Amino acid sequence: MRTKKLFTTALLAASTVKAQSFLEVVQKTPELSLFSAIVSGLNDTFTDLLKSLGPSDAGRTILVPNDQAIQSFMVSNNIKSPADVPVEKVIPFLSYHVLVNNISSAQFAKPGGAVVETKLQDERYALLGNNSGQVVFGTRKESEEKKKAAVEIKSGVEGGAVQIVKQDVVFNQGFIHVVDGFLTLPTNCSKTIEHQGAERLVTYIKRLGLLDTLDSYPGATCFAPSDAAIENALPVLMNMTDAQLIDAIKFHTLLDAYYTPNLKNGQVIETSLIGASITVNVVDGDYYFNGVLAKTTNDIARNGVAYLLDGIMPLTFNGTITPSMPSTTSAQSTSTAPPTGTSTGVEGTETTVGAGTTTPAPTAIGTPNVAAAATARGSIFMAGALALLALF
């Protein structure tokens, strides 16, 4: 066994020695000719970026846009040739495509995906604390067009995700993954959630004078009730004082960036509202926070990560989750008498998940009451708002 291990180590070392440099591999890959031209025009700028990551033997991964992606980028930015690409504009993009760890496509494709730090440290696009680089989230997704699973990489939300179209190309310092688009530079939390469908929440945030606080805090998690959630809760929200609304927004904000690979079923996390916490449940790949479904997850923001929620989180979680409301069903047609106390809006028997200690670390406290969720009626939007109003 020891002999076999030594042989494997020696073989890997030999393959690393024989592997070509990043630029040599790119120059010999036909679908990367435009990227090669751009990098060549930057002289030593990109080479210096690679060297800045650490020792020459440190692993790293480069996401390289193919020619089709670069042509699209040039057209949208009115650039006629690779030689015309301005260095000051392209360096943040290139920095975002350099991952500081050696990540294979298999690691991205594992259940739950992977969050990986990049070399993008420009504070215009990365405000995560401790001078950390901005991140990307990679996961395996079913592709309708290609009729097979592909690895998808999420960056800033305004440009959408890109797919790895050629994976695990080896160079002497790690992997190259060819992607079908440029990553998008992230925007502040407020712009991120607004883009995803939480414009009404942003309106409240601005009116209450919380915009700068939300967008300047490094490494936050922003839970954003959707516009539909706010619309359905308006009768309650309009009767809340500004102080109550501010506390509700604090309750929907975490003071650390929690991406889904960091979350576990039953985990309890403290919020920025002192003394309040939320419970995470994971059911069939869906994420619920205090029983409310996240419609989108891992929305990369300049200063953290955002989740678009299907409702307003109740301050107290009783262990039941509520499934997504059908998009064709209005709140008026599904709403019943508003629940009271600490109900999450699920009518019928309420089954408690269990008790746990509120800490930022994962705390396993059981499984959600999926049966109750499947038979849920009523409006989670109104229930969450009523619970907040009753308890603040």
UniProtKB/TrEMBL annotation:
This protein's UniProt keywords: Signal
The answer on whether this UniProt entry bears the keyword Signal reads yes
Claim: Secreted is one of the keywords in the record: no
Q: Where is the signal peptide?
A: 1-19
Report the InterPro entries cross-referenced here. Adhesion/Biosynth-related, FAS1_dom_sf, FAS1_domain
Domain FAS1: residue ranges: 19-183, 185-313
**What residue spans carry the region label Disordered?**
323-366
SMART domains membership: FAS1 (SM00554)
Q: Output this protein's name.
A: FAS1 domain-containing protein
What phylogenetic lineage does the species belong to?
Eukaryota, Fungi, Dikarya, Ascomycota, Pezizomycotina
